[in-house]
Amino acid sequence: MTALPTSLRERKKAKTRAAIREHAMRLFEEQGYAATTVDQIADAAEVSPSTFFRYFPAKEDVVLADDLDEVMVRVFLAQPAELAPLDAMMQAVRDIFTGMDPQVWAFERRRQDLIFGVPELRARAIQQMTETVDLFAGAIAQRQGLPADHFPARVMAGAAVGAILAIMPSGVGAQGVTPGDHSRMEQALTLLRDGLPLG
Amino acid sequence: MTALPTSLRERKKAKTRAAIREHAMRLFEEQGYAATTVDQIADAAEVSPSTFFRYFPAKEDVVLADDLDEVMVRVFLAQPAELAPLDAMMQAVRDIFTGMDPQVWAFERRRQDLIFGVPELRARAIQQMTETVDLFAGAIAQRQGLPADHFPARVMAGAAVGAILAIMPSGVGAQGVTPGDHSRMEQALTLLRDGLPLG
DNA sequence: CTTTCTTTTGGGAGTTACTGTCATTTCATG
DNA sequence: CATGAAATGACAGTAACTCCCAAAAGAAAG
User: Does the keyword Methyltransferase apply (chains A, B) (predicted)?
Assistant: First the structure.
């Protein structure tokens, strides 16, 4: 996941970060996000509140820290050049979901559950997605040898991210990403490619 | 815009609300969003901070209070039934932008500038858009006589909203929606309808 | 091992957005 | 004018941050 830590200092920092994160997630799941204070998290992780904010600039960032989106863009760019962009995207989705190790998967799932359950977090997650649109628009253009600000490339990126977002579970009792979801993503991208038939 | 106020009380409330809003927007534009405190706004509008929060549950809501999205859905549903969904959407965009009176337009523009300039506001605005996706998905399905949770309808709604969002100016020095923008929106929807050709 | 330098940590004080409560004022009504 | 309802303002309190400074812990050098 991350580069292997060398010095004692690095190892301690990684451990502290992980501890804060784990205790925070647990408390959020147990008592709810809003009802959990930063002080409680700090107490549980045995650090001072000051230290908490040194590791995570905001309470939200404990949950939102690293995003999957950049990985997605990288995998997308690694696809064979002969694939059409939307097909390359589908293949990238497939690659990511099949190659993910179970532990990462489980953690990802807990995160998704929290994010989609808490409006505050959902808002920021979606904002991250708009940054992903920029990344994707650039990536698509690059792949096809088009200028970086190519209009149709932007539209495609926006449509793809929007479509995927739209089929994410978000209502009451929603569950995060499940193993079956990557096939729904592929269906959505196929529809896009075919001009959005409604039949 | 709103129903005509009858009683003295109603009129006063409307005036107070407008005053808070106007002073807030002015201060945000002059000194920036974060640098403006609720107390300053309350002072300028000559109300107590308590009253401020009675009118707007959060500082953000002064800017985000009413959204254009619901209007969009209504106009979309009012389009002639023989238009294909994406064409109906295009026509709805056209109707709204041409029918908007200049004063509303000017205010809308100031709002857009603020929203797209302040990350915090942008995040919440985008969240509102996801709610719009739900509305649109339902509207599309309804128009075509499909079940409310029809998968391709959701994908279409998500793609359309995502595409439009993607071509909104958001970078540094970005300007809000300008009169020329509705044609860009139409271009985007046309691309969607045609299966997203990149040429 | 000790000294010195650097990084990390904890503590405290301060700001700001927001919540809840209660007395007072302001409008509506008979 | 009297009475009830709604709006307001002042107050106290909480929680998420921010800034700053002194103490602790790891790294490097003698």
Answer: no
User: How far apart are the C-alpha atoms of A104 and A99, rounded to whole Å?
Assistant: 11
CATH code where residue A155 lies: 1.10.357.10
Residue A175: predicted pLDDT: 46
In Å, how far is A85's CA from the nearest CA of chain B? 9
- What is the distance between the alpha carbons of residues B24 and B53, in angstroms, rounded to a whole number? 13
Do A51 and A115 lie in one domain? The reply is: no
My answer on whether B57 and B80 are in the same domain is no
**Is B66 a residue whose pLDDT tops 90?**
no
Residue A55 CA and nucleotide D18 C1' are separated, in Å, by 15
What's the number of domains chain A is made of? 2
Smallest Cβ–Cβ distance between A188 and the set B155, B165, B198 belongs to: B155
Question: What is the domain extent for residue A49?
Answer: 8-62
Same domain, A123 and A162: yes
What does the CA dihedral A42, A45, A51, A53 come to, rounded to 10 degrees?
-60
Q: What is the pTM of this model?
A: 0.83
CB contact under 8 A, A198 and B154: no
Domain annotation covers residue A1 = no
Nearest to B126 among A85, A130, A146 (CB): A130
- Per-residue pLDDT tens digits for B86-122: 999 999 989 988 888 888 888 888 998 898 889 889 8
Kindly determine whether residue A162 and residue B167, on different chains, have CB atoms separated by under 8 Å. Answer: no
CB-neighbour burial class of residue B9 (10 A; exposed 0-12, middle 13-18, buried 19+): exposed
